[in-house]
Amino acid sequence: MQAITVGQEWLTVQRRAPVKTALYMIGLLMILFSVSLLPPIAVAWWYDGYQVVMPFAEAMGAMLALGLLCWLPVCRFKADLRNRDGFVVVVMFWFLLSLFGSLPFMLVEHPHMRLVDAVFETVSGLTTTGATILSGLDTLPKAILYYRAQLNFLGGMGIVVLAVALLPMLGIGGMQLYKAETPGPMKDEKLTPRITETAKNLWYIYAGLNVICTLSFWAAGMNFFDALCHSFATLALGGFSTHDASIGYFQSPAIELIAGVFSLVAAVNFALFFLAWRSRSLKAVFRDAEFKFCMGVMGGIIAATCLYLYHSGKFPLWDSIYHGFFQAASIITDNGLTAAGYPADWPFVVPLLLLLGSFFGGCVGSTCGGIKAFRFLLLFKQSWREIQLLIRPSAQITVKVGNRPMADRVMQAVWGFYFLYILSYCFFSLALATTGVDLVTAFGSVAGCLNNMGVGLGTTASNFAPLNDTATWLLTLSMLLGRLEVFPLLLLFVPGFWN
Amino acid sequence: MNDQTDRDEAVLNSFSDQQDSESKKLDEGYDEKESAKPSVTPARMSWKAQHTIQHRAPFKTALYMVGLLMILFSATMLPPIVVAWWYDGYDVVAPFAETLGVTLGFGLLCWLPVCRLKADLRNRDGFVVVVAFWVLLSLLGAIPFMLAEHPHMRLVDAVFETASGLTTTGATILSGLDALPKAILYYRAQLNLLGGMGVVVLAVALLPMLGVGGMQLYKAETPGPMKDEKLTPRITETAKNLWAIYFGLNMACALSFWAAGMSPFDAVCHSFSTLALGGFSTHDDSIGYFNSLSIELISGIFTLIAAVNFALYFMALRTGSLRVIFRDAEFRFFLAVIGGIVALTCACLYFSNTFSLWEALHHGFFQSLSIVTSNGHTTANYSGWPFFIPLLLLLGSFFGGCVGSTCGGIKAIRFLLLYKQSVREIRLLIRPTAQIAVKLGNRPIPDRVMQAVWGFYYLYIFCYCVLSLALVGTGLDLVTAFGSAAAGLNNMGVGLGDTAANFSSISDTATVLLTIAMIVGRLEVFPVLLLLHPDFWK
pTM to 2 decimals? Predict the structure, then answer.
């Protein structure tokens, strides 16, 4: 048995069988996803009645069948994922689940969406964007509302594994830094590099945070159903709500503060939480360079938002503070829950500031979207280094994060990612403008979707229904592109990849 | 004599060469007392070079250069005085004469006390001079606008207009251009000309030596295949050669415009603003005023010419062959991208039924070239075109043209390097152990250059976002803010929304912000940031 390690411990290359591996993984995922339809069926049975249970059951049946069809022929196959298979699986995962997960939306009488809208809604849920085409949420069947929140939940789980385990191993966008390395000061312990092991640990943390958040919302006055759904949406930084007015429906400072706090919590690197848990101390979290930078930037933007809201007379002092805190935290971390008429009723500078902030996202290894704090930290340090080198050209300055020098390879990957991300944003904005969307809406919608944030501007300020179908497809694609961090999707289009 | 020149050249070159340990020692030596000798005196330095570098006196050097600049600038007031005397009368001569006096006075005040100082430019002095050129001259050059009865602008607007001219942006606050005195119109065009001259030297000689934004790539290296010849690295020598080419092109352009039907005055003014890729016109409708196919085509062609690296033209003249230009990797990339955008624009114009086929072709060709190369001339009611096209061209204006030309924006070579880097990333993801270097025309690019390019790109985008946000903060709507910020930072000159026609409707704060943006964009961000860094002044 030849074991060729290309920098990764678990790579064993004996028989390269991409199709079989892909079928195995995809089949398994489909089966698991079909199982995840059971809770909505329970909710439908409890709240809505037989008419809603049937479509979910049909969707579950279809997924289970397809999953078995893929998996049974290869179920005895035991090959590990190679790099390229990893890319294919990741992309296929998102695409297939987006298609099949849209079945309930199409089959159920309310909302009985068309294919393009249903796929948009499903992708929005799974990529934890939170952009919705639906309106009149308060009258929809509870099962549908729960299903949307659950899409957020599943998406969050998938992202946590993607961001902390898979993307670093594939070396996307500079994240190879985290490959089998602990973030923070504990250099000796490895973060259990095997994907399944890492995944389990992270899911425990994720589920635990969800429980705490649900209880907090419940204690603050939400009914249990709302508390659960909003907790799913908040910790996944998704943003699907059970009400049209989102968090604004409750008109409660306590709920907004809780949502804001948990948004910030969800925007921290989950690997740090794992380390804190293992070492029984929060110091691992607070010492992390990226965490400090992230909190610094977010704190600055939150403060600016609150100040501007108060100064412009939009809200009185206390309202400015908690509305500003919640909304800024929600948008920057790409959550997307809104309150108090955001963005349509707010002075325009604030939605624009927060829209630019949504590119920031949060820490890597969290459920946020955007370019992420770590990359901005490196970009900023690199630019600072440039300026210092212009003053003293012969100085020897290396870019360091928390006293650890950054390899050039990582820097280059980060730069490449940044360039392609901006290019994608420009391309999608232009494409949307071509379909007839006005500039403000185009810029806002693309930012909302590429950053997986979920709140648009202009005509898409409240929901994404007014857009034409081409624009909707484009935005669906941009949501996937943003969630997968650009490169995996691009790779599939490179001829060299398929050799 | 040649050896002497080479040695002096080498000394000057070594200032920004980070691998040269000698220069490092000299550097250290300079930070000691002014009259101390350098700790290492390389034998190959001439007596003259040796003794002129001994005295490090940053303030005096700055004063010397700034004084000289102002004296030269005052001399440029003479042509407008002549034009005023010929066309407009004494009322218009007076403001220019007064400006001449003031500028000459300031210049002498600065220069005379230090006129015997013979210090060569060090890196830091270079930065100070570059920033001073654009900031000071924008202030002083605003005086005629303020003093002349028409247009009798306020300080804020006058400085905006002057900065717009000197940075070759071409954004104007004035309206009713057809009614203004000819001297004012000529003065604006001349600002474009001077700005273009300054930009050419800045881009081809100064910024590479200072190593800004990856341009050290061009330091004492020839772009293209001729590796043996140096591009006469001394700044004055390079400047003279480039200015000769620049003036030659201006003459060719003016004659072409005249032959196509413009009056001599219009021909000269539009030639100045076309080759500087500025965009100031003598008419409100810009090139659209003439309603002439041939004028648009000529303008488009010369815009394209002006967006090519002037160093390539120099090489072409020296070797007597155009092959140098066509073999340049950046030039080819630039043509490809521009060609794509032109084709896309023409196609959109035709298929959206805005224009008939022939009109779509020539309007599309001219307008897309004008905006993308950051020229800024417009035609055929550009602000009324289907919205997709101004947005496409606005994004294209970030591209600009080749380095070493008078264009604005991020410039083609940086995009070429960014693109190659991204392609390399993708290929490395497929084969992580492959050894792939980024090459430009078979020459591998050092990491240092790549890092500088990335740093520039990041800061540029960051500046654009901050600027747009600030403009929205002054009360502009989003479309106008994005468009104006792009027009200012990219030195392009054509806005969107409220600023599509001219920039008169924006508030004073917004005007000041845009003025700063124009200078920051022209200076390629870093020099301005450097001057704000406390370490710079130590």
Answer: 0.86
